[in-house]
Amino acid sequence: MKRSTTLITLALASALALAGCGTNGEENTGAASEAATSAAAGAGSTETTGTTAPSGSSSAQEISEEHNDADVMFAQMMIPHHQQAVQMSEMLLAKDGIPADVREFAQGVIDAQGPEIERMNAMLTAWGQEPTSESGGMEGMDHGSGSGMSGMMTEEDMQQLEDAQGTEAARLYLEQMTAHHRGAVDMAKEEVANGTNPQAVALAQKVIEDQEAEIQEMETMLQEL
Q1: Are residues 188 and 83 in the same domain?
Q2: Dist CA 165 CA 92 (whole Å)
Q3: Number of domains in the chain
Q4: pTM for this predicted structure
Q5: What are phi and psi of 7, to 5 degrees?
Q6: CA-CA distance, 216 to 218, in Å (whole number)?
Q7: Mean pLDDT of all residues belonging to the chain
């Protein structure tokens, strides 16, 4: 701080000296003012270099340890819910004869929900909970609505999607994924209403907004099949 003050003082003194020696008072006064302003700006930037977070800082990705049971339940249940959506989408993409717009949608589900799974596992780790593995989150769970995981497909549902081909597979996928998304929206609304962790609540709000929009998109695609 002392060094910055000294630099400003020297700059002002030099500028005033130039103004006094010149013959055009107006021009030299303007130059002095500009020099003083530049010196002050330079000194100010020197002072804040160590305290300003750099652009692109990972601080926005930090997860608060503050949480409650609703936050933990949201992550533990939404992870396998997302995993099943990714599984359904991968299953569809492995088939032939799927309309291009439905294929693009399915890939979008994978691209969006994969990172959200990683984010929720990071939340569980930050809260001292065990992260959910891909297999661990699915085994031994009742995939029906009775488990609280609204919209989950049963084993029979998944087998129907596996067996379907072409346009029929696309139609079944869209119908199943619409129900799946509605379940995710319901779960996310519970988190928004009851959760306390700011990152978990923000993610839940994003799930609501994204998947409600995707439900409308799927309904349009169903009408066009």
Answers
A1: yes
A2: 9
A3: 2
A4: 0.69
A5: -60, -40
A6: 5
A7: 78
